[in-house]
Amino acid sequence: METHSAYSFLAFLASAASAAALVIHLLRGAKLQIFRYFKISPRMHLFFTVAYALTTAVSLATWVCHAQGWDSHWFISVTLTMVLVLLIVELVLIIARRVNTQACAQVQSVLVVAAHPDDLEIAAGGTLAKLVDRGHQVHAVIMCHGAQGGDASVRPDEARAGSSFLGLASVTIHDLEDRHLEEHSATMVDYIEEAIAAHAPDVIITHSRHEVHQDHAAVHHAVMRAARNHHSILCMESPSVTSDFTPTVFVETTEYADVKKAAIAAHANQSDKPYMSDHVVDGITHFRGRQSRLGKAEAFEVMRLRLSNVMPL
């Protein structure tokens, strides 16, 4: 009787594991939160898929055996052992891959300078998450609360949530006048110089000079002044770039498509804007991917680039 109870309990555990894996597998948002919290590549999705499939198979087979009145004790023991071994091996391989990837890369510092709270996620969210997962330190400076484009009381918190989700090491949000950043050019230069001194970035990412949005263009020029002696500056592609935007650097973000969209979704106050929709975001990354013969990609213009600072992505 005790043995039968023990195996029944094991069957229950198999069912519970199956249900838990199913929930994680289906809840896209929760799954992404786990990825970003542990700063693990979206390849971790494979782990949950395997866990869900195997534990579901065990659960179904166990209940079938019980329903048919078969002696399922041996079957349960062997199958649960196989499942446990497979999941441990899979998890070890994933962690080893992550550790090896980071160990092979020289840790570098990246500074992103943006005008508004949602700019960096829209233009470079996939790249920034990928940099974080490669072990690099990514810092962000945002120049205003975006009061003219939404609720300034919530947008800074949304920016912190989006940056935290991507895994950024820090985000500094200033409160300059939205849509009038050009009038605060000297102040922005001071802010950027302070960030450069604090973080010693190997690469700086900011807006392009080819912009119809006056704040984006103002931030670009402020960065070029503040980083006049810096060796590596890339310009990201926002929805407001002009046809003169000519990217020559492409970062594959196929595995980070959901991460990018989830980071953008953190800016709920901007959800009604057409450029925030998934199909627009996917359209841009698909286009840049085709252009660079990658799956999905984010594109950058090079202002200056020291080859020794090229990071394997």
What does this structure look like?
The radius of gyration is 24 Å and the shape is elongated. Helix 8 links the parallel strand 4 and strand 5. The longest helix is centred in the first third of the chain and has 32 residues. With 313 residues, the protein is α/β, with parallel strands linked by helices. It has 10 helices and 7 strands. The chain is 54% helix and 13% strand. Strands 3-2-1-4-5-7-6 form a 7-stranded mixed beta sheet, sandwiched between helices. The protein folds into 2 domains: 97 residues, no CATH class; 201 residues, 3-Layer(aba) Sandwich (Rossmann fold), CATH 3.40.50.10320. Helix 6 runs antiparallel to helix 9.
Task: Give structural attributes.
313 residues; alpha/beta; Rossmann fold; 2 domains; seven-stranded mixed β-sheet; zinc; hydrolase activity, acting on carbon-nitrogen (but not peptide) bonds, in linear amides; GlcNAc_PI_deacetylase-related; membrane; transmembrane helix
Topology:
Layout: H1 2-26, H2 28-37, H3 44-68, H4 73-104, E1 109-114, H5 119-133, E2 137-144, H6 155-166, E3 170-176, H7 185-199, E4 203-207, H8 214-226, E5 233-236, E6 249-252, H9 257-265, H10 278-291, E7 297-304
Parallel strand pairs: 1-2, 1-4, 2-3, 4-5
Antiparallel strand pairs: 5-7, 6-7
Helix pairs in contact: 1-3, 1-4, 3-4, 5-9, 6-9, 7-8
